[in-house]
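User: For my dataset I need records formatted as: sequence, then structure tokens, nothing else. Please produce one.
Assistant:
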Amino acid sequence: MNTGDTAVTPSKKGFCKWVCMVILLCFVSSAFAIDNPDAPDHISEFLNRAKPFEHGIEQPAHTTQGYIKAYAEYERFLDDELDAVYAQLMAQLDGEAKKGLRDAQQAWLRYREQEFKFIRLNWNSITFGSSSVISRGDYRTAIIKDRVLLLLHYLQNY
């Protein structure tokens, strides 16, 4: 046989079929990941509702008390959003999935309390001065906002 021959051996043929099958499966599986364009965009809606609170925190004229108030309002908003998206997601689930989400949420609430405790103990006025108010508020709200966004991503599937 010449080195210029391009005969396809059975093993090459099987490999080519395997590669083609993998490529085809990649395209087919990506079709399942396409979101319904008619479904509401819960994430964008949430981010738009959060903007006034985030802009309120960014006001440069805040005093320490102003930051405390702005972060408290933002945290209340986030807690309300968390409760709402959790309820919406629970309404979509049943059986083991519903129990799984309930267990996960209870574990997350315990995690949140421990994080809040650490934040309170570490970012205090003795160690960080008046900027501790900003750090505490920012870290606390980030924890809640991240959970809201995660649950909203889950909800996008329904």
